[in-house]
Amino acid sequence: MIALLASFLISTNAPASELVQSCRTMIPADVELDGRIILRNRKGFSQAEYDYVLTRRSGETDLVLKDASGSKVDFEREGRILGTDVTWSDITLDYLWWDDFSFDEEREAESVHGQTCSVVIMKKGDRTVRVWVDRKTGALMQAEELVSGKPVRRLWGTRIKKFGDRWMANVMEVETLGSGHRTKITVEELR
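Above: the chain's sequence. Below: its structure in token form.
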């Protein structure tokens, strides 16, 4: 998930590889997250809710979803999960490990939530994600999935919380642009 505090400050002249590495180091290598995924319409009314447990151990990630009755729900890793706006990439941030990345010079020094960011384009095959990285902390602030150079989905953090000694976004929003709905991801526990 999106961590919001780094152990060092990023130089404003840092190469893209240093910014990406900063984001990677903020994501725990071994972690278990419990939370909720809530699909809401534009008026904020819940349309679907799932509890989740995300486990990352030794480079392997597993996601278990349960419906309101507590029953495990099967889902596909490709595309949106169970009709929500959330994809596997949103939950795992797997695009941070893609090897093809470069600065988006047209968007340099844009701000997200008042933080000046460097903007990096990340590619893998036919997939492209644009990420905003806070210049002061090296934290991932926002991400957009692009299709033919245009944003189709956006992820951003809306609240942070301290879990032990780690600050992380504990509420995130994911929106499929133009869909009329968005999905909230909450992190209730981090172990």
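The longest helix spans residues 16-25.
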